[in-house]
Design brief:
Layout: H1 3-22, E1 27-30, E2 38-41, E3 49-56, E4 59-63, H2 69-72, E5 77-79, H3 85-93
Antiparallel strand pairs: 1-2, 2-3, 3-4, 4-5
């Protein structure tokens, strides 16, 4: 992965975090020294939701399921450039 791709991942996650903040959701950007950055959404009930951004044929997408779930659950991602990505993710992860 190039430095430019890493930068794009962080930019998409920061934008999503800002959009979620506007909806009243507590989110934290996690930048591990090894591995890819993630955005964690804190929930009152249950553990945190971890959102990653990956590149697919259609462009960058947010996914909030484990990597193996994205292989067989095609409805668990949102295009990163969607104006309503935060709304869609919040509706999907809310109990």
């Amino acid at each position: 992965m190039t430095a430019g791709e890493q930068y794009e991942r962080v930019v998409h996650l920061v934008r999503l975090g800002w959009d979620l903040r506007g909806l009243g959701v507590c989110a934290s950007l996690v930048l591990p020294s090894g591995g890819q950055p993630i955005l964690e959404i804190k929930r009152a009930a249950g553990g945190p939701i971890r959102i990653t951004v990956i590149r697919r044929r259609c462009g960058w997408v947010f996914t909030w399921r484990p990597w193996w779930a994205t292989l067989w659950r095609r409805d668990r991602w949102v295009v990163a450039h969607a104006d309503n990505a935060a709304d869609i993710i919040l509706a999907e992860v809310s109990p």
